[in-house]
Amino acid sequence: MVEFIPQNTEDQIPALLARPRRPEWLKARAPSGENYRDVLGLMREKDLHTVCEEARCPNLGECWNHRTATFLLLGDTCTRGCRYCAIGKGKPPPLDEGEPERVAASVAHLRLRFAVLTSVNRDDVPDGGAHIFARSIELIRQRTPDCQIEVLIPDFDGNWAALQQVLDARPDVLNHNIESIARLFRRFRPRATFDQSIELLARARAFDPQLVTKSGMMVGTGETNAEVLEVLDALRSSDVNVLTIGQYLAPDASYWPVDRYVTPAEFAMFRDEAFARGFRHVESGPLVRSSYNAHAHVGASQH
Fold it and tell me: What is the spatial distance between Cα 31 and Cα 252, in angstroms, rounded to a whole number?
């Protein structure tokens, strides 16, 4: 059975008919509530973006009602064309150098104890926007000293000096998502490479053995369970501490198709296998996303 068939997509009907029906365990509540409205209003007031909205995260309502949000730095237009991502793509405007100040003010307003900063890819600027990450960390620390900070960074196109800018700002958690298995990687994430992402995480570990490093991937894109375990091995080869695994959900029929819906039992198996390999904290479930329960990852991974 088809979930929906958009108008004027006759040529896509065979592909849509082949898509598996979304199971009950993937249902999420529509966002609502006073805290949700407050966070939404603040983002509009400060002219900020969140990956929660741009990537259509199913946990948006839950997280915003806990007064947490993942700030999307460097604007809302990405210079890459990853086939799974709903964030807008194209030629972005110049970087907004005032963005870090507004992010820091928002963190202070929300009285956050844990803030997550991520971004679009900005291959149009020399450092990929790394200085915006660094300045945001600096200003958050000035305004809200008790707030811990996770950065979910792009690969900076292999610019290791840009990575160093972020590391020098001393985030509490350095996250870079591997997203996919090696076999599908270049089709799933054009202009990125599996080995480069693994190297980034290894460089972060070499910079500071005490830094919490983290990565995440989506399943249901055409991989086998054995290939998922191979990714876990590759991440542990760079001593990554924290792992997130969630179900891939295509934003619409124009994106990479969902190959299958991974069962809760399989997610539990991935979690057990990850712990057996030495990960210190693991979130593995159908609705898990990279920043889901991020505040819990630091303490758990340091034990």
Answer: 20
275 CB-side CA count, 13 A: 10
Nearest Cα to Cα of residue 244 among 164, 301, 159, 187: 301
Q: Which two structure tokens, joined as six digits, stand for 111? A: 């009285």
This prediction has a pTM of 0.83
What residue ranges of the chain are covered by domains with CATH 3.30.750.200? Answer: 172-303
CATH code of 172-303, in short, is 3.30.750.200
Q: What is the mean pLDDT of each run of 10 residues along the chain (303 residues)?
A: 38 48 69 64 66 56 62 93 87 96 92 90 97 98 95 97 98 96 94 96 97 97 98 98 95 91 97 98 91 64 56
The residue ranges of DSSP E strands in the chain, in sequence order, are 49-50, 70-73, 77-78, 88-89, 114-119, 148-152, 173-175, 212-219, 242-247, 281-284
- Cα separation, 162 vs 155, in Å, equals 9
